[in-house]
Amino acid sequence: MIGAIAGDMIGSVYERHPIKTKDFPLFHPRCRFTDDTVLTVAVADAILTGRPYVQTVREIGRRYPNAGYGGSFIGWLHTDHPQPYNSWGNGAAMRVSPVGFAFDTADKVLSEAAQTAGISHNHPEGIKGAQATALSVYLARTGHPREEIRDQISRRFGYDLDRTVVDIRPAYSFDISCQGTVPEAIIAFLDSRSYEDAVRNAISLGGDSDTLACITGGIAEAFYGGAPDGVRAKVEEILPPDLWQVTEAFCRKYLNRTSRN
Question: Which helix H or strand E contains 206, and what residues bound it?
């Protein structure tokens, strides 16, 4: 989860100013947390407390009205009777990493991921993006090698993961869809050799940088046995106390269960 939040922060500077290189400061002085972080924490809070996802997402989301939500989501967040609006946006995938850390079977991960997405992003591509992301985290956490992760996600979801970051980077551009974000974020992890390398891969694609790095960062954290200490310290420094409290509680309960150390 910290890996996902850090990815969001690291990528935040480049969301509107995309880059095509891995050579950049890991935490730029202007980096910040965005809606990706706020909603990831909200999903974690629901898991910790047992409250419905819709309740925690709306409650915590409303605390941070300027986090960078999309227009349709803002309407959903503030209406009295929220209904899913058939979105295929990558917001379904950016917030789901806690599911992959918390639940103990692939079937449960897939079910819970669909629930986190379905409160707003109930288009089949939105559900699919959330499930593929959460299952990638789960498989990484439970010791599956990267080629098995590639094979399982490709077969289940039909994503083309037989590409590389180098293949994707030249023509890739800003894309807010799950179908145009999640496969690329997974490939950024598959092509990596460390947590930091994975996040740099994601941002170097030059797309929706904070969301790409958020998705990639959660998978990489699970695979590599946690986020580096310096990354964790930076997340704690930047997050406000209420979001850090949930993050720390979730990490204490769930993130010591990764298979790699």
Answer: none
